[in-house]
Automatic annotation (TrEMBL):
<dbReference type="InterPro" id="IPR036396">
    <property type="entry name" value="Cyt_P450_sf"/>
</dbReference>
<dbReference type="InterPro" id="IPR002403">
    <property type="entry name" value="Cyt_P450_E_grp-IV"/>
</dbReference>
<keyword id="KW-0408">Iron</keyword>
<protein>
    <submittedName>
        <fullName>7-alpha-hydroxycholest-4-en-3-one 12-alpha-hydroxylase</fullName>
    </submittedName>
</protein>
<feature type="binding site" description="axial binding residue">
    <location>
        <position position="440"/>
    </location>
    <ligand>
        <name>heme</name>
    </ligand>
</feature>
<dbReference type="InterPro" id="IPR024204">
    <property type="entry name" value="Cyt_P450_CYP7A1-type"/>
</dbReference>
<dbReference type="GO" id="GO:0005506">
    <property type="term" value="F:iron ion binding"/>
</dbReference>
<keyword id="KW-0256">Endoplasmic reticulum</keyword>
<feature type="binding site">
    <location>
        <position position="109"/>
    </location>
    <ligand>
        <name>substrate</name>
    </ligand>
</feature>
<keyword id="KW-0479">Metal-binding</keyword>
<dbReference type="InterPro" id="IPR001128">
    <property type="entry name" value="Cyt_P450"/>
</dbReference>
<keyword id="KW-0472">Membrane</keyword>
<dbReference type="GO" id="GO:0020037">
    <property type="term" value="F:heme binding"/>
</dbReference>
<dbReference type="GO" id="GO:0005789">
    <property type="term" value="C:endoplasmic reticulum membrane"/>
</dbReference>
<dbReference type="Pfam" id="PF00067">
    <property type="entry name" value="p450"/>
</dbReference>
<keyword id="KW-0812">Transmembrane</keyword>
<feature type="transmembrane region" description="Helical">
    <location>
        <begin position="6"/>
        <end position="25"/>
    </location>
</feature>
Length: 501
């Protein structure tokens, strides 16, 4: 008779030893950054890191300085917190630091997409061709039409649209940007009512996935949540299946180009469906939350709202929205909004907190701006967290926690690009889109989406907070490191289309 108890006990000891021994024996080598393995074998600092990444890194920086290595779940991460030393990491002329492998492992886990060789370059090429220049103009036009469809309905402005309505500001912004973004990228059918219903259902399911996303990435879900994530993934693969594309008109050239590349490369339709899910999340996961913060800041700062409204009136002229009409204006106006540009940039500075990762392929020496040299070990991960080291640096951005709508404007109204630290001009004075090889390829379209939405809201709508004294909600600490931070709770607001008379 087999004694399963002792056998399982020995097995657990072996597994624990396999996981923990590398951490127990690792020591700081000469020229390596300060090493902080944390209180728990293998786990290291993962609990306080996940509880509040921002506060954890602030504590580690005060304890160890601008460069330090910490253990997180059996993996060693070296954080570089001095923005003047970012250059060599972002450029990486020696090619010892790799972003692509790390990204491919993440998208396989989260979206089920197995990236092929050259996919990263293909996405960048497609984005350069269709999300910039003339391609961006075409997509902006589609986005304006889809915003009209989502905000006004299939028949345009209806009678009674100037009645006050109340909603959650976060849900309102996220829902509208997601639905319009989805329809502009993945096209519509002849049945606009059905398109809106499908987009609404997709958003509902997307929010379920989005709420689980941070803990999913770190494998911290409960068993029922793992099951729910699997079901949601299958649902998205089905709803975004390439089998449905012949039924849809206006699928963006960006999506078409990438799917054609995958199809010609022999990628199966099932894997193309997973690719579509990945592109939907990448394109729509941050624009809604960012727009929420932008409108909330404007509502809380009347002088900023007045400045944006005056600019909107100037560039859109006396555009009026009559019955049964859609929003119509010259999209060239998007190039003439320096005040709104500054508002969006300031919103991103305050709300966007991505983490930039590079895996160390072979031992790498970083020479910092202070002339110190640090050796990064093969197999570790180098990480940058610009929100703390750049966005909240009072030397770069005085009074960094305050919203200043004109922070990115010069006194003459032109765009401000000169920011300094330690007397040196700093190139990366904000990094909401990442940088280097990991810079967001869709950043120009995302910026235009948010500008279009805010322009429409301030030009055509009356809006106000239900409680003008409601404070700006704190940020959800679970979202640090994942793009735009979402609020811990939303706020209520009222809105209506401005009367025609």
């Amino acid at each position: 008779m087999v004694l399963w108890g002792p056998v399982l006990g020995v097995l657990l000891v072996v597994i624990a030893g396999y996981l923990c021994l590398p951490g127990l024996f690792r020591q700081q080598r000469p020229h390596e950054p300060p090493l902080d393995k944390g209180p728990w074998p293998w786990l290291g600092h993962v609990i306080p890191f996940r509880k509040n990444m921002f506060e954890f890194l602030k504590h580690m920086r005060a304890k160890h300085g601008d460069v330090f290595t910490v253990q997180l779940g059996g993996q060693y991460f070296t954080f570089v917190m001095d923005p003047l030393s970012f250059g060599p990491i972002l450029k990486d002329v020696e090619r010892k630091l790799d972003f692509v492998q790390y990204a491919e492992e993440l998208v396989l886990k989260v979206f089920g997409y197995s990236a092929g060789q050259g996919d990263h370059q293909m996405i960048r090429s497609a984005s350069t061709k269709y999300l910039m220049g003339d391609g961006l103009k075409d997509l902006n036009k589609a986005m304006l039409n889809c915003l009209s469809l989502v905000m006004l309905g299939p028949t345009g402005r209806s009678r009674g649209a100037d009645r006050w309505q109340e909603d959650s500001l976060f849900h309102f912004c996220y829902r509208i940007l997601f639905k319009a973004g989805f329809l502009s990228l993945f096209g519509c059918t002849e049945d606009k009512e059905q398109d809106l219903l499908q987009a609404e259902e997709l958003f509902v399911q997307f929010r379920k996935f989005d709420l689980l996303f941070p803990r999913f990435v770190y494998s911290l879900l409960w068993p029922r949540e793992w099951l729910a994530v699997g079901q949601l993934q299958q649902l998205f693969h089905k709803m975004l299946s390439v089998e449905h594309f012949p039924e849809r008109d206006g699928v963006s050239s960006w999506i078409h180009y990438m799917l054609r590349h995958l199809r010609e490369g022999g990628v199966t339709p099932a894997m193309q469906d997973k690719f579509n899910f990945m592109m939907l999340w990448a394109s729509q996961g941050n624009t809604g939350p960012t727009s929420f913060w932008a409108l909330l800041f404007l509502l809380k700062h009347p002088e900023a709202m007045q400045a944006v409204r005056e600019e909107a009136t100037q560039v859109l002229r006396e555009a009026r929205l009559e019955a049964n009409q859609y929003f119509v204006f010259e999209l060239s106006a998007l190039q003439c909004t320096p005040v709104l540009d500054s508002v969006i940039q300031e919103t991103l500075r305050l709300g966007a907190a991505p983490t930039l990762y590079r895996r160390v392929h072979e031992d790498y020496t970083l020479k910092t701006a202070s002339e110190k040299e640090y050796l990064f070990r093969h197999g570790d991960v180098v990480a940058l967290f610009p929100y703390l080291s750049v966005h909240m640096d009072p030397e770069i951005h005085p009074d960094p926690t305050a919203f200043k709508y004109n922070r990115f404007l010069n006194p003459n109204g032109s765009r401000k690009v000169d920011f300094y630290k330690a007397g040196k001009k700093i190139h990366h004075y904000t990094m909401p889109w990442g940088a280097g090889v990991s810079v967001c390829p869709g950043r120009f379209f995302a910026f235009s989406e948010m500008k279009l939405f805010v322009l429409l809201m301030v030009r055509y709508f009356d809006l106000e907070l239900v409680d003008p004294d409601t404070p700006v909600p704190p940020m959800d600490p679970q979202r640090w490191g994942f793009g735009t931070i979402q609020p811990s709770h939303s706020v209520r607001f009222r809105y209506r289309l401005q009367p025609t008379e």
